[in-house]
Each structure stands twice: as C-alpha cells, then as structure tokens.
Amino acid sequence: MSHGPASISRLEIHLLGPFRIAVDGEPVEERRWARRKPKLLVKLLALQPHHQLHREQVIELLWPELDSESAGANLYKTVHLARRALEPESDARAGSSFILTQDQQVTLRAPGELWIDLEAFEQRATDALASSSVEAVEGALELYSGDLLPEHLYEDWAAGRREHARSLYLELLARLTRLYDAAGEYQRGIECLRIMLASDPTNEEAHRQLMRLYAQTGSRHSAAEEQPSCWEVRQASARRGWRSRPSNGRDGKERGCSWAPVTSRRGRRLTDCSSRPSPATPVARARRYWLINLAPGRNRSLGSSLPWP
Fold this sequence. Notes:
Arc Repressor Mutant, subunit A, single chain, 4-stranded mixed β-sheet, elongated, 3-stranded antiparallel β-sheet, alpha+beta
C-alpha cells in the first residue's frame, strides 16, 4: 500500500513498554530502521511537550563528542533516514508528513493525528485520579503497557518522564484498591495490591493493606504469610534511615508507625508489621535477602539473578 504525504493522516507512537510505531494503523517494521540514531531521534521528539527540539539540542544529545560541522552532517542524514523509515514510498522531494526541519527546529507532527500513548496515559490518569469512577481508573491503567522506554533505562533524558508515569501508575492502582475496598470487592483489591508490590516490593503501605484485605476475606493464613514481607520492608527501610510517619493511634504512638495492627473478623489480632515474624519461612528468608542485599542502592549486579519469590 502506497502512502503519499496527502494520504497519510495518523501517526501512532508507543513509548510505554516495547517501542513501536504505526502509520495509519500499519506497524512500522523493525527492518526499516537501518540505524539506531533515526529511531532515537523519533523517541526524543515524541517525549518533548511540543514534539520539537532545536538542532543544537539534538546534536548535544546524539553527538556530543563531534564538532559542529560533523554533527550537522550526521543530523541531516539521520533526519533523512527517519523520514524514510516512516514513509518508505514517499517522494523525498515532496517533503515529509512527519518530520519537519525549519528555522533550526526539528519537529515531529502528523497531518491528521499524532497519538502518543504516554501523553494519552498521563491525561487519562490525571482525569481518573480527579474522579471516583472505577471505569475511569481501569481505563487509564489499560494504557500503561510497561515502564517508559525500558531500553533506555539509564538515559537522563528519559528518567524524569519515566518516574512520573510510573508514579501515576502506582497511584492509579492505589486508588483502584481503595475503590474496590469501599465496594466490598476485596479480591479485586488484593489483585491490585499484588500488582503494586510486583512493581514496588518496598511499599510498606501496600503490604499492610494486603494483610488487611486478606483478613477481610477470611484468609488469615495468607495474611500471616504476608506479615514477614512487611516486617522485612520496615527493617530494610530502617537500615536506609527512612522513618515512619507518626500516628495518633495508640499502637502508632508506641511504635512510631502510621497504622494499626491487623485483626481477623473474629477480632483476633494478627501479627503486624512492627513485630518480628517467627519462624521465618523460606520465602520470607529469600525476600529478606533481596531487601537487605539487592534492593535499590545495593548490589545491582546480582539483582537480576534472584527473582522475586
């Protein structure tokens, strides 16, 4: 199918999870990206608030080690290759439908719609968090396909937006958990909390809520199994100098924690996160090892070799 500048209308870019692009619904095949820099240029432009960068900004990001003349030549070639990847059958003399160079600016655009999943997610998440609608929160979460550009995990230019998007994602899960809890849908709330903990195992509040919801469903055994993980998070946090928020509750005053102990429906007190679990199960010992030795700030080289239990 041939696409000329007049017939192309929509450019769809996915930055969350695996990077992918579609032109009028047709995926751009990986083989079209002959080199790495043209694809990187599209990613950089898609991340900008107005999808635009000054040529000097692009050069600084892509070729900081080159002199101005060499870097300018590379930029010209990279823009050409990016255009060819997006519009392989278009006439170069007719200009580009998607990448415009004018007045020292490089701009990403689309004649019809430029849709970027990150922007759609951020907008939907903001709207959902301002409402009390389960459907709105669930709809926003559906747009989050994974962390932003995981292939550029250590690039400064992606770090800020990645953390912002991830923060919104966890906030949406927390909101959905509360909505499910209020509606008495405890099992769905448990599912949300487990997803949160898979993404952030050091979230003490999520561990605490998970214990409580297990108790609400009568799963005292599951609540008791969760308790070691919560205690280990507190221990690891203490080692890094984190402090729990003071509480007005009696137990909070005694322990300096921000929550009360979990009890079963019969009123029997279950162990809480401030008391040491005993005995430690193999799973608890493995989690404790991860938190103490491999959590953020610890030995990252070993972190990928020990899966979360």
